[in-house]
Design goal:
mainly alpha; single chain; 14 helices; 2 domains; about 50% helix
């Protein structure tokens, strides 16, 4: 039995267009014998359109003719080009040029200091490093710990800005959901909103401002009287 693309649709086509036995069709498509009988009776896969295995490259005409002549023969499926394209491709580990590998500890240190919510698995995937190296940088046991400095991995050319933003956003969302689920406040400074700017109170400046607003009446109790004109002074 091989991995057949759209097995039920293939079984529908074989039931309708060949003289193969139910056992042959069930073995070729990887279905149960009762499923094939149900397809023939119109009880199973009633609305499924048949798929020609010869047209999509999973079966040769020679194999089909041989199976129709010999009921005990079991058809051998071919590897379909379409089936190969649909298989999930395992993503290769990120390759970091040799000239950039010495910068990875600085990028790890940047994550540790500025985004502690990002998991080690995310850092490892982004930078192409190992969890052991991340732990050494975090615990300051790295062989070059004395010279490490936090540097943005985008500046170092290790990741793109889009990848970095996506990783940070995902980590922050996971942390928020965990906090909401546990009913605890978020105590991570990297996830807290910026604190409002508080202007310090200057008592001397406030006192000076208040004095500047005082009127003459506030200081002397009443406006000073106009000086009396003395005629003797004029004569003198």
């Amino acid at each position: 039995m091989a991995d057949i693309l759209m097995p039920k649709a293939t079984a529908v086509w074989l039931v309708d267009n060949t003289s193969l036995s139910f056992e042959q069709i069930a073995d070729f498509c990887g279905l149960h014998l009762l499923e094939v009988k149900g397809i023939a009776d119109g009880e199973v896969a009633r609305d499924i359109r048949g798929a020609d295995p010869i047209a999509n490259g999973q079966l040769t005409r020679e194999e089909l003719d041989k199976a129709e002549k010999t009921p005990s023969y079991r058809m051998q499926a071919q590897k379909s080009r379409h089936a190969e394209l649909l298989k999930p491709q395992k993503k290769a580990p990120r390759y970091t040029p040799v000239s950039r590998r010495q910068d990875r500890p600085d990028a790890i240190y940047w994550f540790v200091k500025n985004h502690p919510e990002v998991t080690d698995a995310q850092i490892s995937k982004l930078l192409g490093t190992t969890k052991t190296t991340i732990e050494q940088v975090r615990n300051r046991t790295h062989w070059n710990a004395a010279n490490l400095k936090p540097v943005d991995p985008v500046t170092l050319g290790l990741v793109s800005q889009i990848e970095l933003d996506a990783a940070v956003r995902k980590a922050a969302e996971v942390k928020r959901k965990q906090a909401e689920k546990l009913g605890i406040p978020l105590d991570d400074p990297s996830l807290q909103p910026a604190a409002p700017v508080v202007v310090p109170f200057d008592e001397e400046e406030e006192t000076f401002s208040r004095k500047a607003d005082l009127t003459v009446e506030d200081v002397f109790g009443s406006a000073p009287s106009k000086p009396v004109h003395d005629e003797e002074d004029d004569e003198y």
